[in-house]
């Protein structure tokens, strides 16, 4: 028997796994940058497929610096945060070019995530930046502020592209990105992070015909292809006025906490190509075949619980979207196999940050768990309900539709898997309500998996953190 430490909510538990268990190992972290500040400057001075800053701006330029919100990365990176370093250096370069502070705006690209207080933003930007700009020059994107959104057009497939006006009206937009997973960065930063429900609903709804290509597999993902089509619409509109977004992307390693290993800057598509190439080398491991059963520890440190509190819907999303979804080509678990997730799944909610989650859990899920029916019958209601719009805009709540989006992301995993277990569940009814079969212990869950699939079924343990990706050839 093999003993392993498995993430379990706010702690790690010691578990004895069957001797035949394949225990995966995260790739060793690539060495961090010796001098991140110099790497940022080098990237700015020699951008990829883009004019350098000195040719983009002048004393009268209106400049916007947009940046990833504190949701990313899952576990806060080693201080100082890359966003703080990059924006500090960007501001120095703007000052050298004579750009007035009154012509600079900093926008947190939070999409339908909640807005963040200045104190919360200081955790990624540092106090000097957050204290150096007033609320009209440092603020969170508002996906419900109709006066500050612009429809830039539609893709050839008829998908509307609506973004923050700053994207189109700034003389120069810079974007500072944290790339901790292949799902992040690229055009997603713009056409999701700085977009609206009107746009986001088109690609964040559950698709009945989803083929199961993981969003972590950027070269194959249908979601990523759509995002790039939407980005092309923005790019074309900007080009009419001779403008081009300047992105600054970091790549993080697998250390805990994560550290930057590279910085690329310039044109979004060309930069992101280099980002993905390095990220895949850092995060992807190759395996020869799928497994019957996979075990995943689910920590309470979840993306949408950062600076807040996890809840059962976030546990489900962390399990089905982020743990199960960490693959290229084919899922780690074979079709009809069993996933065993490990988390207490407590019924706790931060009602300020996740107001619509409470109603969704208490009123909708007891009626139906079907992701397609839920979207069809409830999405527009939750998205436009005045109290949820108000809480999103003014009271630090996630957008009303956000829990429905996360719920829909579990559609393919549940269709692919035969059964989904939650080991260590403290509240069986809550676990069942979010789609798990609950077990008191991991031993009991493994015994049931062996009873269901046979005593010789293959078992794989995929530990986290850190996050890493499995690749099984088709």
Descriptors for this entry?
Rossmann fold, 474 residues, 2 domains, 34% helix, 17 helices, alpha/beta
Question: What does this entry show, briefly?
Answer:
The chain is α/β, with parallel strands linked by helices and about 475 residues long. Helix content is about 35%, strand content about 20%. The chain has helices at about 35-45, 80-95, 120-125, 125-130, 165-170, 190, 195-200, 220-240, 270-285, 310-325, 355-365, 370-385, 385-395, 400-410, 410-415, 430-435, 440-455, and strands spanning about 1-10, 10-15, 20-25, 65-70, 105-110, 140, 150-155, 160-165, 170-180, 245-250, 260-265, 285, 290-300, 325-330, 335-340, 420-425, 435-440, 460, 470.
Tell me about this structure.
Helix 1 (36-45) packs across helix 2 (82-96) and helix 12 (371-384) packs antiparallel against helix 14 (402-408). The strands form 4 sheets. Strands 1, 2, 3, 13, 15, 16, 17 and 18 form an 8-stranded mixed beta sheet that branches. It contains 17 helices and 19 strands. The protein has helices at residues 36-45, 82-96, 118-125, 127-132, 165-169, 188-191, 197-200, 222-239, 268-283, 312-323, 355-364, 371-384, 386-394, 402-408, 411-416, 428-433, 442-453, and strands at residues 2-9, 11-17, 22-23, 63-68, 104-109, 138-140, 149-154, 160-164, 172-179, 246-252, 260-266, 284-287, 291-299, 327-329, 333-342, 419-423, 437-439, 459-461, 469-472. It folds into 2 domains: 2-27 and 288-472, 2-enoyl-CoA Hydratase, Chain A, domain 1 (Alpha-Beta Complex); 36-283, Rossmann fold. The radius of gyration is 22 Å and the shape is globular. Helix content is 34%, strand content 22%. The chain starts with a strand and ends with a strand. Strand 7 (149-154) and strand 8 form a beta hairpin. The mean pLDDT is 97. It is of the alpha/beta class and 474 residues long.
